[in-house]
Amino acid sequence: MRKITILSIIVTVCFIAAQGVFAGTYVGVPKGTICQAYVDYNDSNTVTITAGYGECNGNYWEITTPINHGMTSLTTSEDFHYIYIDDANSDYSQPTIIDSNTEPAWSDSKLGWYNGDDRCVGVVWTAAGSATIMHFSANSQMIFIVDGWYKQVLSNGNPNGADQLVTCAAYIPVNAISIGVIAANDSATQVEVATEDCLTARVTEYTYSSGYANARGWLMLKRNGSRNLVFKGANSDGNTFRIYLMGYQTER
Under a CB-based contact definition with an 8 Å cutoff, are residues 122 and 250 in contact? Predict the structure, then answer.
């Protein structure tokens, strides 16, 4: 009689798992996993979800060929539109893609951003009056607006030497983990911008010889934290402080 050992069991399990990998399938995808499957710009009404795989509400899904998804939630109001895996209508492992302007929420139990049982995989922005996706370039989950910026959140700011709040949470995705900013002032000794939750990490630039100052960079955001910014300049600086949002990075 053949003796079954722990070693033989381990070898058998590894062999079965290896067979699955070589066959192009994935065995035991952990909860919360998403690999690739990025949302990219296709045209003014369409996004492309690139090849990848992951988990949604306990189900494994896989995209072997990029999916072109025609947006259905676009309106003439400026807003974010979130891209989801439709859990109820997916024939796993093939996911069904939907979009909505309903924000997702972080789920500790599911380890992801969800609207009900639908897993968020990306988000795009529409400008006021357009009902079209603003042209962007995607680098993984980092979105860069091709035209330079998608929203001005401060104009004619009056620096007073202290941090001043800029209420702009509505213009940053709820699942953003960093935000790209551009700051400028026509007559200034310096410009500074930070997030309300992290005042020590700042985008900063001091004046040029012409008296003009601008700066650009990325600021980290806390999950479920404030999405507001603060700005700062010298009290003697001009009252034309401006802040533009040029992109965002999200988690899923």
Answer: yes
Q: Give the distance, in angstroms, between the CA of residue 175 and the centroid of all CA atoms in the same chain.
A: 6
Joined together, the tokens standing for residue 177 give 């983990």
**Cβ proximity of 81 and 99 under 8 Å:** yes
CATH level 3 topology of 33-143: Tail fiber receptor-binding protein (2.80.20)
How many angstroms separate the CA atoms of 227 and 223, rounded?
A: 9
> At which residue do the structure tokens 């380890």 appear?
111
Classify 141 in phi/psi space as left (phi over 0), alpha (psi -120 to 50) or beta.
Answer: alpha
Domain boundaries, the chain: 33-143, 151-250
Q: Count CB neighbours of 143 within 10 A.
A: 27
Strand partners of residue 219: 179
Give the residues across from 127 on adjacent strands: none
What residues contact 60, with CB distance under 8 A and at least 6 apart?
Answer: 26, 29, 53, 54, 92, 93
pLDDT in tens, 58-104: 999 999 999 999 999 999 999 999 999 999 999 999 999 999 999 99
The token pair at 4 is 């079954």
Query: Which of these ranges, 7-11, 94-98, 133-137, has the smallest mean pLDDT?
Result: 7-11
Contact 82, 98 (CB under 8 A): no
Interatomic CA distance for residues 205 and 223, integer angstroms: 27
Confidence of residue 22 (pLDDT cuts 50, 70, 90): very low
Contact 222, 138 (CB under 8 A): no
Dihedral sign of CA atoms 60, 66, 70, 74 in order: positive
Check whether domain 151-250 has CATH 2.60.120, yes or no: yes
Burial 222-236 (b: 16+ CB within 10 A, else e): eeeebbbbbbbbbee
